[in-house]
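Predict fold of Glycosyl transferase family 2; 238 aa.
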Amino acid sequence: MTSGRTCSPDLLLSIIIPVYNEEETVQEVVERVLDVPYRKEVIIVDDGSTDRTRQILSGLDAPEIKRVFHEKNCGKGRAIGTGLAHATGDILLIQDADLEYNPAEYPVLLQPIFEGRADVVYGSRFAGSGTHRVLYFWHYMGNRFLTLLSNMFTDLNLTDMETCYKVFTKKALEGITIEEPRFGFEPEITAKIAKKHLRIYEVPVSYYGRTYQEGKKIGWRDGVRAIWVIVKYNLFRF
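Predicted 3D structure, encoded as tokens:
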């Protein structure tokens, strides 16, 4: 288990942004990320976009930005794995490219790590008073069910296992390899960090969800896959 020493906010923050066909939002997301007041590197992994996303990314000019391009679409989990492989920071944070999550909330996410209390922090959409767009009932129930099932296997008491906002110290991810290519990354990484007996915290975050017409990509098949991923990585794999 990691020691409880206080961490300096001057540590390098690696922000990993997996991107696939997000021409409408990616530039604004990156600009918001660049505005956060931390030493940082921004690792943008384009996962084989077929719209104007690549051209937009190529036009972004900031010394903090690292761009990696997949030749074909491999899935969010693969893109995050690529981002982690290129990260050099002391703290690693996952950021979606679709404006559903607000980078202005990084201070809330990072505070438990800076204070030396946490090795991993999840930003929960369901744990507090943050602003939430009202959308799909069954999508919400699916998230709650998958979180409950994951908790039953991991013996954690998370409220939002499927959240995008996950923050890790570099040491917390030592020895962990991401295997799931798509959205199975969420239950996979949760199972793997639970087995390491790390100090895991949740903090409330806002959520500005979007509709499928606006570009939301996760579907019911990913939910079915997540059930198998929960069983697989908790019972059969490290």
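The domain at 13-236 is CATH 3.90.550.10 (Spore Coat Polysaccharide Biosynthesis Protein SpsA; Chain A).
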